[in-house]
Amino acid sequence: MDLQSRILVVDDDADLRKLIGDYLRGHGYIVESAANVTALRQAMQVNRPDVIILDIMMPGEDGLSAARSIAVENGPAVIILSALGSDTDRIVGLEIGADDYLAKPCNPRELLARVRVALRRRQGPAPADGSSRVFEFAGWRIDAGSRVLRDPSGVFVELSDGEFALLRNFVEHPQRVLTRDQLLDLANRGERDIYDRAIDSQISRLRRKLQLRDGTELIRTVRNEGYMFTAAVRRA
Questions:
Q1: Which CATH architecture has domain 134-235?
Q2: Given CB 3.0 to 4.6 Å as the disulfide criterion, which of 28, 34, 42, 132 pairs with 3?
């Protein structure tokens, strides 16, 4: 379960930090807070959070820069909570690696729902039939339980939570066309508002990471339909 998961709230508004912290603690989470990105990095060195709720506009280093570095480090899930709420702002936030994006002001219950979705995606669904969650394709190996992807030479490949969710669902449904809506439902259980362009960007990043190590096109765009994972997949 996600009870006692650790959440870090990063915002220069002390009242908002307290409001969010009190609400999430009331639902069983361990919540810490930071007023800026410097404090965020210090907090992560002490206790690694499972989810970071991150403002964009703060003194010093901005939240987008922090979100980008956290995604590169394959760090915790990042939910951006910002007063910048246009479609463009949302898309930029998701493109740089954030797992979710909410505009201020938001309903605390909605924020709680997004946190729960982010935590469930990190843990991944347990297979109902007890079957293996390790898959092999074109020399690659992905362990959906421990969230580890290794290339054909055995090197660990870092993926954001969103990229990992997409790849997991591709290998679970290989060699068939998946529409954007199907991918969103599989990866997010339909509980998150996200745009087609954002998922296109995540797939493009995933495709580049796979192609860096293998020139074979593993994710093919099917015009006017969606995407297909072309490799044969077997459970290890």
A1: Orthogonal Bundle (1.10)
A2: 28
